[in-house]
Amino acid sequence: MSSTPHARPSIFGLMAEFHTAEELIEAAHQVHAAGFRHVDTYTPYPIEEIAHALDLPRSKVPLIVLGGGITGGIAGYLLQYWTSVIEYPMNIGGRPFHSWPAFIVPTFEMTILFAALSAVLGMFALNGLPQPYHPAFNVPRFALASRDRYFLVIEARDPKFNLDETRRLLLDLHASEVSEVAH
Amino acid sequence: MATLDDFGPAEKPYKPPVVAPGHTPATVTDKISAVVLAGAPKWWYAAFGVSFFLLMIFMMAVTKLLLEGVGIWGINQPSGWGFDIINFVWWIGIGHAGTLISAILLLLRQEWRTSINRFAEAMTLFAVACAGMYPVLHTGRPWLAYWLLPYPNTMGLWPQFRSPLVWDVFAVSTYATVSLMFWYVGLVPDLATLRDRAKHKLAKIAYGVPAMGWRGSAKHWHNYETAYLLLAGLSTPLVLSVHTVVSFDFAIGIIPGWHATIFPPYFVAGAIYAGFAMVLTLALPLRAAFGLHDFITERHLQNMAKVMLATGLIVVYGYAMEFFFAWYSGNHYEAFMAVNRVLGPYKWHWLALIVCNAIVPQLLWIRKIRSSTFWLFFVSMFINVGMWLERFIIIPVSLSRDFLPSSWGMYHGTIWDWATFIGTMGLFLSLLFLFVRLLPMISIFEMRTLVPDATKGASSKEVAQ
Asked: Residues B127, B307: contact at Cβ < 8 Å?
């Protein structure tokens, strides 16, 4: 979703702070039910229930890993086939040039290597990391998101966003504090 | 028909908790990050100093090696392999416990692993770094070590893919890369914690850059959890393959005592055995020094002791099978190898091996010993030595007495072999002390999932489910 310059809201959004994971999960359910879609939560540890509450789509990481693994396996085998049969054939103890049982180990290792690389790089890419700047860090209390507080942010670009009403909704959901997030 | 219910609820034996009671996400965060952010205690400088001194011995040994060549080591005909391979296998085996704890125990949902996995993974990385030194230095011209890799070159040469040594290059370099990534991915949320906790501007930047802007977003955790689980799933067959391939270095050869089908499982069990012994050797003093008894509890010690006992018995079974094969094969040279191990010129090494690896660890059957830090440390030290002796028995003892008596000869490590070995311990310990000083040695975000929420009684894990 891109927003045109003149439609850019004056703030990034509203941030609600919660003391417990239960309150946050409940709030996420309610906010999603109220029709908000530009919502994200920030928690000190992964909470599976949040993904259900916000109706997040299935992660694409497994597909990327599968692709990486298959690529690695094929590339590893072809590398050995090409070097041992075509480019640099050598008679080693009378074994055939295409001595496939000997090629299993490097093929396996290359499969794992490529799959693991795609898991890590794919995860970071999907998450848009590294990201040197994000508006959430403009709220000083947000530092507690990496300790013991649970945050929920509704972005101002959400069509249902209304500064006063949204603030009231968040306070009704037992947010201990609601702050405006600057861009 | 009787069902399980008819027997009533089973009496469960008492299990010490994984985390001491009374902790919350806040206290866990503060306590673990304080170890890093509060400044080093005095003993740290002393410990790091000693490690750094040992590292300098390594530098000296390597300098001498580069000036004069591998002739300064004790290797020669008939023992072309000696300390270099013994220590390579010893170090890489130690590394395996880290991956076992971080990947396999994660997949098996063993929650107790959480407080030791970060530390054990670091141990894996540093042990693999030490292991990697030996084959690279053994090439004699380590600056040409990249020749081991397949790349187009002006010489028109390619690696010989039918050789287990080339398989080793692939297995070990993949293992090092994947372990590093797994460790780093696990660190990212904790680096963000340190970035948010750090007071000094420089520390904020130093932790902030590798944290990459992590903020605990639900969308991020969603992909993160999937990727972490997949990495664990990939590391599990990888770690088993690495020591299998290491054992192929021997098993593919025809030397008596090497050419055995039992080698892969026996090597993997030995690696885990050695690795857990090293985890205990390092974790027990660090736990005492940093007062981490709340997080590394008696439960962890007991469980690690049980894993050592189980893998130790597999290793002893391996020893027994080697003798059985020697007899059952009817092969004259194999039979001589067995006799030579027990009664030959290295008989004291063999006896020490049996004491260290087979007899002393039987103490772990006793519950009192499994929960005593002193005795666990005592047994672990025996296993550390025993696993080194095991590789000594396999490598030079077989090589020095092969098929032709006319080519027999003795093998001894020279002072430079020992200097290199002690030196890699310096490398390992220096890296380890830097790690405990600069990075959280216990995974903070995973510990938060094990403790109850700040205000309510429910454990965070229960909330998540």
From this structure: no
What are the pLDDT digits (tens) for B215-244?
889 899 999 999 999 999 999 999 999 999
Query: Is residue B179 within 8 angstroms of chain A, CB to CB?
Result: no
Euclidean distance between the first and the last CA atom of chain A, given in angstroms as a whole number: 17
Q: Please judge whether A88 and B158 are an interchain contact, meaning their C-beta atoms are less than 8 angstroms apart.
A: yes
Which chain B residues have a beta carbon less than 8 Å from that of A145? 196, 215-216
Residue B300's nearest CA partner among B451, B121, B118, B116 is: B116
Strand partners, B459: B452
> What tens digit of pLDDT does each residue of B386-403 get?
999 999 999 999 899 888
Whether residue B101 contacts residue B124, with contact meaning beta carbons closer than 8 Å, is answered with no
User: pLDDT tens-digit profile of B138-161?
Assistant: 988 899 989 989 999 998 899 999
Straight-line distance from the first to the last Cα atom of chain B, in angstroms, rounded to the nearest whole number: 35
Q: What is the pTM of this model?
A: 0.89
Split at pLDDT 50, 70, 90, the class of B343 is: very high
Tens-digit pLDDT profile for residues B303-323: 889 999 999 999 999 999 999
Give a yes or no: residue B460 inside a domain: no
Say whether residue B109 is in contact with chain A using an 8 A CB cutoff. Answer: no
Q: Does B313 map to a domain?
A: yes
Query: Which residue from A87, A105, A144 is facing B245, i.e. has the nearest CB?
Result: A105
**Considering only CB atoms, which chain B residues are within 8 Å of A131?**
212-213
Interface size between A and B, measured as CB pairs under 8 A = 211
Tell me if B7 sits within 8 A of B171, measured CB to CB: no
Range of the structural domain that residue B347 is part of: 17-146+161-452
Question: What is the CB-side half-sphere exposure of residue B435 using CA atoms within 13 A?
Answer: 24
CA–CA separation, A106 and A81 (whole Å): 11
Using a CB-CB cut-off of 8 Å, the residues of chain A touching B182 are: 116
Q: What is the mean pLDDT of chain B?
A: 88
CB contact residues (below 8 A), chain B span 1-40, against chain A? 24-26, 29-30
Chain B residues touching A44 at Cβ < 8 A: 25, 29, 193, 216, 445, 448
Report the CATH number at residue B97.
1.20.1630.10
Within-domain flag for B258? yes
Q: Do the chains contact at B238 and A127, CB–CB below 8 Å? A: no
Instruction: Enumerate the domain spans of chain A.
Output: 5-58+134-181, 61-126
- Check whether domain A5-58+134-181 has CATH 3.30.70, yes or no: yes
**Integer Cα distance of B25 and B36 in angstroms:** 17
Q: Do A43 and B454 touch (CB under 8 A)?
A: no
Nearest CA in chain A to B453: A20
Query: For the segment B170-204, what is each residue's pLDDT rounded down to a tens digit?
Result: 999 999 999 999 999 999 999 999 998 888 889 88
